[in-house]
Prior knowledge:
Elements: H1 2-24, E1 28-33, E2 38-43, E3 47-50, E4 60-65, E5 71-78, H2 81-86, H3 94-106, E6 110-117, E7 120-130, E8 136-146, E9 149-158, H4 164-175, E10 178-179, H5 180-237, H6 239-253, H7 261-268, H8 273-281, H9 295-322
Antiparallel strand pairs: 1-2, 2-10, 3-4, 4-5, 5-9, 6-7, 7-8, 8-9
Amino acid sequence: MKKFRNTLLVILSVISILLSYISVSAEDTEYYLKDLGMSLNISDTLTVKTAENSTLPKGYYLEATNEDSTLRISIAMEKNEITEKVDSFANQSSTYLDELKFSLQNEGLSEVKDATYGSVPFLDYKQTTTSESGAETFELHSITCIGGMSIAIASESIGDNFTSDELAVIKSALESISFDSIKTEQKETAKKTTKKWILSILLIALAGGLGVFVFLYFKKAKKKKAFLAQHKENRNYDVLRGAELSHRKAEQNNLGGYKTSADFFDEHFDNTPDQNIQQNSIPATENTPKKKASPLTRMGYFAKNLSREINKSKAKSKKSKSKKKRKAEDFDIFSTK
Length: 337
């Protein structure tokens, strides 16, 4: 029996959890309040009226109630000189908001605290009122000022305090609030931020590329300078190579060569080394005529040379006659001797 009781309790607990989850996770419908430039989501468990499709008291733009009218959510807006002067809570200092919270507490409101819905600062507070019949109404208020408008969102529970399901519905509606002006600002801010990031990335890439280029340029210049210095140092030690290079540069600037092959042979083969040395050491006397021998003297030289040659030939002939001729001998290759 005790085991059955425990099992039944577990089943009932699971059913209650599922029912609470279903009630909380009911679908929401988005409502757009054009005059306020504001939108929010309201649970489908509530009946919603707006100023555009229903008749609401002056200054009210939305009203949502449950089936037994024990829960009511309303949105009101007021615009006057004071609200236009304040313009927005976001533009006010923390001192202004502290003074406003202090004034609300002096009026008997409790738990005044800061909140943010739809990227807009709000002030939340609680209030309890009693009707003439003695019925108590528990209220939750969220107020803000934006675009010169004072917007108040009031949630009321008649007869008893808010249940957990009612608080979940109210919280979901408040957290879904969004304003057109804030959306526009956020889009513009996102675009500006994106442009800044793109520009920053481009500048960083450009600076990085320029830095790499400068580094490579100076590295190459330094390497070239070191190479030239080393080459110059080696050239100072190799004097003959330096002289050869200088001579080669001079020859490249002046055209040279020989017009004909005869000029080459006349210069390199006709003159003996002794003659070249003599020509280089003794100054040329082109205008001084050479003294020629007379015909009689040359005839005397010829006769003398001729007689010398005749005597040489006679001496050779006598020497050849004096030599004995060798007798030929037969040789028998088959002889055993």
